[in-house]
Amino acid sequence: MAKQYDVLFRLLLIGDSGVGKTCLLCRFTDNEFHSSHISTIGVDFKMKTIEVDGIKVRIQIWDWLSTAGTQRGQERYQTITKQYYRRAQGIFLVYDISSERSYQHIMKWVSDVDEYAPEGVQKILIGNKADEEQKRQVGREQGQQLAKEYGMDFYETSACTNLNIKESFTRLTELVLQAHRKELDGLRTRASNELVLAELEEDESKPEGPVNSSKSCWC
Amino acid sequence: MDQSVAIQETLAEGEYCIIAVQGVLCEGDSRQSRLLGLVRYRLEHGGQEYALFLYMHRRMAITGDDVSLDQIVPVSRDFTLEEVSPDGEVYILGLISGFLCAGSDVTVQLNTAELNLVFQLPFGSHTRMFLQEVARACPGLDPETPNPEFLWLSRYRCTEPEPPPPGWNSALGTWTGCARIGGGGSYLDDLRPNGKGLLVDQNSRGHDKPDNLLTRQTKSRSEMNDMIRCSTITVSDKAHILSMQKFGLRDTIVKSHLMQKEEDYTNIQNFRFFVGTYNVNGQSPKECLRPWLSHSTQAPDVYCVGFQELDLSKEAFFFHDTPKEEEWFKVVSESLHPDAKYAKVKLIRLVGIMLLLYVKQEHAAHVSEVEAETVGTGIMGRMGNKGGVAIRFQFHNTSICVVNSHLAAHTEEYERRNQDYKDICSRMQFCQVDPSLPPLTISKHDVILWLGDLNYRIEELDVEKVKKLIEEKAFQTLHAYDQLKIQVAAKAVFEGFTEGELTFQPTYKYDTGSDEWDTSEKCRAPAWCDRILWKGKNITQLSYQSHMALKTSDHKPVSSEFDIGVRVKDEDLYRKTLEEIVRSLDKMENANIPSVSLSKREFCFQDVKYMQLQVESFTILNGQVPCQFEFINKPDEESYCKPWLNVNPSRGFLLPESSIEIELEVFVNKTMATKLNSGEDKIEDILVLHLDRGKDYFLSVSGNYLPGCFGTPIHTLCYMREPILDLPLETVRELTLMPLCTEDGGSQLEKPMEIPKELWMMVDYLYRNAVQQEDLFQQPGLRLEFEKIRDSLDTGMIDTLDILSINNHSVAEALLLFLESLPEPVICYSAYHNCLECSGNYTASKQVISTLPTFHRNVFYYLMAFLQELLKNSEKNHLDQNILASIFGSLLLRNPAGHQKLEMAEKKKAQEFIHQFLCNSL
């Protein structure tokens, strides 16, 4: 019997507060949807196992929110949140199709990704809340245009109606797998930082930060 | 057959053959049969040693006469016996065209430092047991245990005077080279079949005493069983571990869930099974078997073909192989249904009892976990002249066990037959893929097909009567006298099994080569010896018949065809079920990520003042999962929070649904005050509360700091003609950041004061109230009063001190704190070393002081004057020059290197320096 292994990836959900990142995550991992908005102040994650090309992939999806709104608040948290970029192999950039502002901010988020995320990180653009057609402020083609500009795949999703949720998560996972094909092939001989053998996974699943360590050790 | 008995007979007292297995020693192209016996020796002083004895042997070793010692391999520390190609894929199928060698399924490699042997051992649980026993015998790596010495093996040395083989001392029994021997010396004595001289203690043989043999055997069995029962997997259990497949815990859980939900993703699909049994009476195949094996139009999916009395010769009984196996295998393979291609899955034989399993080629991929076993119930209840063989396998998702048995003969022995059946059921045990699971028995299968010469006869009726009834085809009448029917009805045997209607005439006993009933002297009554029974769900018997056309034997072959409903995986449904399981596991896992709720996440500290503790608290309420929490460092920071903040406790453990109160303490001391005054630092921080294996929470801390004279530079205070709290924050910031050397930089500013008014306020108060105060500067003040002093200094309410009649000690302490909190000490850091150097030289010292910036110089002389004033009252206040020099030396002169502990010499010099200004005129 061939040695079975799991691959662990870390994906990150980013975008303005209120675009529905947590809802996307809950829908994808637990197939649940809660419309009430609870601000995430901090960083949360959930696990999900999917199979792509016959490889069992465990994905750890990180979700954070940089305070309810104010620009000042965002900046305050930025020094902290940027650390989470470093660990990600894939990033969802999420806006809300009923919020022009959240769409405009994608540019800022992309520049953050460019600045903090590791090279070769895979990105995908998500226009969420596609079910709220009557409140639409951002056209589908606008989303496609922006995605094209940045060379990203684009999905309009709805956590509420479960539109394109699985598709978009699977797609990003595929992209990450492709990008790490080489390491994956070499997986039998060694486990790199990004690709973690299942046995090691338990130890890896926390953003380790021993208080006494003098180095910055969030990554 | 347990051949350890034969070995045991050759051993000396204290030596015990635990288990033996017959294998093939492979050296290059040569293949030689060897009997491998694991022998234990109990040492006199306790403990035991083991060696592997390799014997040449007559084909089936029964007594000590049948074996002769070839070599001995001590089980030393470097001894290993390992399976080299794990027998995982049992169903590597040989197509009919290519004959696969049956048996010799497990290849093991024996290694010591000097030896490397490869054996092929028969497939099955006996070999596995053997490997486990050997592994258990291997000495552990515990250095405490002495190296085995193997002194007991010395007696197996050739007794004839021959040059000793390398690695052992010529002196009998004194193996000084024991380490080397323990390191794997093999006693390649020149023992050959005739080398009986080496097998000492011939008297102990008991080949003429079968009773003795039997008891010994039974004993060894039970002893062995005990060992097996108490066995645990240890590290040294190499053979065991080798065959173990390691799955992640998660995979194991998924598997067990899949098993539970099998019905959700499998469909019952019928497969045609052909089951045949034929007692061939020791004959070689003489005719084509198609009339038996291919009589129906449809090609069966699976063939289960059993033979009995394949070979009646003594050789077959005593020795393992017989040419008949190959002959019959070949003819069966050639007689299978011509419309399909078949793959042999397994052949298993015990003496004359052989079972063959074939499947259509396209089904081969769906056959797995094939295991085969034998149980002898013949002579002494163990031998293979009677008994059963069985093959178990997984076909798609259904487990199937096929048993071929030859039960005890003779009409009156039906109880014996019942017992044989029970023995086969209880002793037939199949290893599982996962060795941690207990072995499977026949009854643990979804489908059981039992065929064979069960040997049950027709009783009570005389031969002629039976023959007459047969002629009349009155089979129904005969059933009442069929022992099997009677015993099954009495639930004495084959409980739960079904047999089809017997619509064919008895298959025993005919004159060979004819359809005539036995005409021999014995004139046996006809009987339905050859039977097929089944147990399980979804089984439909399509036919049950004999085949009179075959005349090779005194039996006629019997066949039965079945449609058997097998659980076949629906790939789509399977995937769906699997996904559901994975999703539920993910959900469970996510629910097990620790999570807490916080009673408060934003904290605001209003009007934080110098050295005034402010505390806010909040509660962490844990969820359902025990969790460990900790405030962790932010990137590039050395602590989890700013220096003015402290979290108590900053880490801890929470049981489910328990809670803990956390206090946030803000306290500004001299090291932080200046930067807070200048606005370089703010009461602002983010705390990261991290849960082990869980999320991170961000807590926001904010607030404002009220600037004060504490921590404000001397020159800044001089420029502040108004109380610091009356000034706009911006002005405080600017003045605080103003460089020290601006002697007259404040042209646009108001004219500065000579010394800070706050200093004057404190000194003036002390001058007026405390010059005669006993132990001034040596007693602590009151914390509450300090806050009042601080506030009155910062607000300029000079009178307050008098109105409240503040304790002298409190004011004195405040003065010291004020000096201590100065970011630049009264004697500037730059002058520090100069001062130390010229301490003792008053003129030079004064010279250094004169270089200080004006405000600092002013403050210095002001303080010195005040201290001299105090000394005038030393009778009352008990102060002397030394005390004051010591107190003020360390405050006015501070090492620029920071808080390092000063050396005594340095301290002393600082004191000396101040001392000069106390005893000389200023």
From TrEMBL, chain A:
Record-linked PANTHER family: LD44762P (PTHR47980)
Keyword vocabulary terms for this entry: Cell membrane, GTP-binding, Hydrolase, Lipoprotein, Magnesium, Membrane, Metal-binding, Methylation, Nucleotide-binding, Prenylation, Protein transport, Transport
Name listed for the protein in its UniProt record: Ras-related protein Rab-15
UniProt EC number: 3.6.5.2
InterPro entries: P-loop_NTPase, Rab15, Small_GTP-bd, Small_GTPase, Small_GTPase_Rab
Function, as annotated: The small GTPases Rab are key regulators of intracellular membrane trafficking, from the formation of transport vesicles to their fusion with membranes. Rabs cycle between an inactive GDP-bound form and an active GTP-bound form that is able to recruit to membranes different sets of downstream effectors directly responsible for vesicle formation, movement, tethering and fusion. RAB15 may act in concert with RAB3A in regulating aspects of synaptic vesicle membrane flow within the nerve terminal.
Keyword Protein transport carried by entry: yes
One GO CC annotation: plasma membrane
Major enzyme class: hydrolase
SMART domains: RAB (SM00175), RAN (SM00176), RAS (SM00173), RHO (SM00174)
Superkingdom as given in the UniProt entry: Eukaryota
Location of the protein in the cell: Cell membrane
Family stated for the protein in its record: Belongs to the small GTPase superfamily. Rab family.
Record bears the keyword Ribonucleoprotein: no
Organism: Phyllostomus discolor (pale spear-nosed bat)
NCBIfam families: small_GTP (TIGR00231)
GO biological process: protein transport; Rab protein signal transduction
Pfam families in the cross-refs: Ras
GO molecular function: G protein activity; GTP binding; metal ion binding
Positions of the UniProt region annotated as Disordered: 199-219
Subunit structure of this chain's protein: The GTP bound form of RAB15 interacts with REP15. Interacts (GTP-bound form) with MICAL1, MICAL3, MICALCL, EHBP1 and EHBP1L1.
Reactions the enzyme catalyzes: GTP + H2O = GDP + phosphate + H(+)
Required cofactor names: Mg(2+)
From TrEMBL, chain B:
Keyword annotations: Cytoplasm, Cytoplasmic vesicle, Endosome, Hydrolase, Lipid metabolism, Lipoprotein, Magnesium, Membrane, Metal-binding, Methylation, Prenylation
Protein family per UniProt: Belongs to the inositol 1,4,5-trisphosphate 5-phosphatase type II family.
InterPro entries found in the cross-reference section: Endo/exonu/phosph_ase_sf (IPR036691), Ig-like_fold (IPR013783), INPP5B_PH_dom (IPR031896), IP5 (IPR046985), IPPc (IPR000300), OCRL-1_2_ASH (IPR048869), OCRL1/INPP5B_INPP5c (IPR037793), Rho_GTPase_activation_prot (IPR008936)
Entry's Gene Ontology BP terms: phosphatidylinositol dephosphorylation; signal transduction
Species classification: Eukaryota, Metazoa, Chordata, Craniata, Vertebrata
EC category name: hydrolase
Enzyme Commission number(s) from the entry: 3.1.3.36
Protein name as it appears in the record: Type II inositol 1,4,5-trisphosphate 5-phosphatase
Domain Rho-GAP: 747-922
Topological relation to the membrane, as annotated: Peripheral membrane protein
GO molecular function: inositol-1,4,5-trisphosphate 5-phosphatase activity; metal ion binding; phosphatidylinositol-4,5-bisphosphate 5-phosphatase activity
Compartments it resides in: Cytoplasm, Cytosol; Cytoplasmic vesicle, Phagosome membrane; Early endosome membrane; Endoplasmic reticulum-Golgi intermediate compartment
Pfam families in the record: Exo_endo_phos2, INPP5B_PH, OCRL-like_ASH, RhoGAP
Organism: Phyllostomus discolor (pale spear-nosed bat)
Keyword Cytoplasm: yes
Coarse class of the protein's main subcellular location: cytoplasm
Known function: Hydrolyzes phosphatidylinositol 4,5-bisphosphate (PtIns(4,5)P2) and the signaling molecule phosphatidylinositol 1,4,5-trisphosphate (PtIns(1,4,5)P3), and thereby modulates cellular signaling events.
GO cellular component: cytosol; early endosome membrane; endoplasmic reticulum-Golgi intermediate compartment; phagocytic vesicle membrane
Highest taxon listed in the record's lineage: Eukaryota
UniProt catalytic activity: a 1,2-diacyl-sn-glycero-3-phospho-(1D-myo-inositol-4,5-bisphosphate) + H2O = a 1,2-diacyl-sn-glycero-3-phospho-(1D-myo-inositol 4-phosphate) + phosphate
Keyword Metal-binding: yes
